[in-house]
Amino acid sequence: MITPSELERLVMNVPDFPKPGIMFKDLTPIFLNPKAFQGLIEVFAERYRGENLDAVVAIESRGFVIGAPLAAALGVGLVLVRKPGKLPRPTHRRTYALEYGTDTLEMHQDAVRPGARVLIVDDVLATGGTAKAVSDLLGDAQAQIVEAAFVAELGFLSGRKRLAPTPVFAVLEY
């Protein structure tokens, strides 16, 4: 199995992206490296194999990169959480605050049955706003969130606190 330090060596720091003063953690080199990408999915799969999950809930768009192979590895369904207007059937919808303005996420109303055991996945946990909106969507659906899982967590932004009481797991922590 791949180690977090092996994965971390592949992460590229991109200064001043998307705006000055931000040090962006680019995870795409992990996805480009077949051994690293397979190893990353296996880290998640090993953690969640015994959890009797019904679905992996992946957040648009980089969460899809992790969620799809993870759901397949676990033999469970994949729920896509998307920006407005991308899903064709009735949806649950949550609008949440950003630093400047708001954003909205949607999930099909029939994607998760009440009581379903689900795992939220995304690439990075920063302030937690997006993941909190997904948690709220799942609450609307009366799902049971087992954990929220991320490739990387930017701990200095305290996103984990915003998700409480949902447990959080990150392979890499900054």
If you had to describe this structure to a student in words, what would you say it looks like?
The protein has 174 residues and is α/β, with parallel strands linked by helices. 33% of the residues lie in helices and 34% in strands. It has helices at 4-10, 28-32, 34-48, 62-74, 129-140, 159-163; strands at residues 12-15, 23-26, 55-59, 77-81, 91-98, 101-108, 117-125, 144-153, 168-173. The strands form 3 sheets. The chain has a 5-stranded parallel β-sheet, sandwiched between helices. A hairpin with a 7-residue loop joins strand 1 (12-15) and strand 2. The chain is globular and about 40 Å long. It starts with a helix and ends with a strand.
| Biggest sheet features | 5 strands, parallel
Rounded average pLDDT: 96
Q: Name the overall outline.
A: globular
Number of helices: 6
Q: Can you write the helix and strand succession as a string?
A: HEEHHEHEEEEHEHE
Show unreliable segments. Answer: none
Distance between the termini: 21 Å
Helix fraction by DSSP (H/I, runs of at least 4):
25-40%
Tell me the strand order in the biggest sheet: 4-3-7-8-9
Q: Give me the count of strands.
A: 9
Question: Which class best fits the helix and strand makeup?
Answer: alpha/beta
Radius of gyration: 16 Å
Please indicate the percent range of residues in DSSP E strands (runs of 2 or more).
Answer: 25-35%
